[in-house]
Amino acid sequence: MPLRRSGPARRTLPLAAGTLASLFSVLVLPLALPGTAGAADTRKVPAHPEQDWMGSTIAAHEGGQRATGSEPRTTSASVSGVDVSSHNGDVDWPAMRESGVRFAYVKATEGTSYKNPYFTQQYKGAYDADMIHGAYHFALPDHSSGAEQATYFAHHGGGWTKDGRTLPGALDMEYNPYGDTCYGKSASAMVSWIAEFFKTYREKTGRDAVIYTSANWWKQCTEDSGKFGRTNPLWVPRYGTSVGTLPAGWKYHTIWQYTSTGQTVGDRNRFNGAYSRLKALANG
Question: Which residues contact 112 (CB under 8 A, 6 or more apart)?
Answer without folding.
Answer: 43, 143, 144, 148, 149, 152
